[in-house]
Write a structure and sequence with these properties.
about 250 residues, alpha/beta, TIM Barrel, 8-stranded parallel β-barrel, globular
């Protein structure tokens, strides 16, 4: 088993970290740069910052966020939110981000994944997929989970993998913020069917949930927000638990 990663996620709205349940009812959780720096000190393996603020000056916002984080954090971090063009990615990476996350723009223009992978390398490109289980189908949603599509999770994940994505960040909208555990079946299927790393997101509420997603679903990384933001499970405690249960971690 390869070493697993623990990744705090910080959703940023108007310069503040926010967290909700099932993508709604957002509450303030603190300054994203300060939180990121604290997580870095506590032993997080990577960080993900997703700017969910709609703004016409998105590129400037992302660049400023990346620069501020890079000045305070010494672990790899990903920037996402509203990235839709090569120039957006260039700005984020040149401002200090290690990777970028694309979501809605990739669904609207799948060739963008190829273009970005060719321009910057697959290792920089994370495709985020927000999906909701409706009946027996996993339906991909856009714009922060607000817009359902005709796209199905597993076929879309395979397509972006084939097009050159370096990783997939899969968030189960059904599980998001519930703290009832990750979507093990869907995550496990993605891990089995795809050759690239799968980051599991949505539902973390205990150390046991990370153990399950790493063993049952074979995820490469576990991402969480509120349990870290509100200090319900300190990262050092989580990592010690996983070590004690024979999970290789960084």
């Amino acid at each position: 088993m390869l070493a697993k990663r623990i990744i705090p996620c910080l959703d940023v709205k108007e310069g503040r970290t926010v967290k909700g349940i099932n993508f709604v009812d957002l509450k303030d959780a603190g300054d994203p740069v300060e939180l990121g720096a604290a997580y870095s000190r506590e032993g997080a393996d990577e960080l993900v910052f997703l700017d969910i603020t709609a703004t016409h000056e998105k590129r400037k916002t992302l660049a400023a966020l990346a620069r501020n984080v890079a000045s305070q954090v010494n672990i790899p971090f990903t920037i996402g939110g509203g990235i839709g063009a090569i120039q957006d990615v260039d700005v984020c990476l040149s401002s200090g981000a290690d990777k970028v996350s694309i979501n809605s723009a990739a669904v609207r223009n799948p060739r963008l994944v190829e273009q970005l992978a060719m321009q910057f390398g697959s290792q920089c490109i994370v495709v985020a997929i927000d999906a909701k289980q409706i009946g027996d189908q996993w339906v991909v949603h856009l714009n922060g989970g607000r817009i359902p599509t005709e796209v199905e999770l597993f076929s879309w994940a395979k397509e972006v993998s084939d097009r050159g994505a370096g990783e997939i960040l899969f968030t189960s909208m059904n599980h998001d913020g519930t703290k009832n555990g990750f979507a093990l079946n869907a995550t496990g299927r993605l891990s089995r069917e795809l050759p690239i790393p799968i980051i599991a997101s949505g539902g973390a509420g205990s150390a046991e949930h990370f153990y399950e997603v790493f063993t049952i679903a074979n995820a490469d990384a576990g991402l969480a927000a509120s349990i870290f933001h509100y200090d319900e499970i300190p990262i050092r405690v989580l990592k010690q638990y996983l070590k004690d249960h024979s999970i290789p971690i960084r």
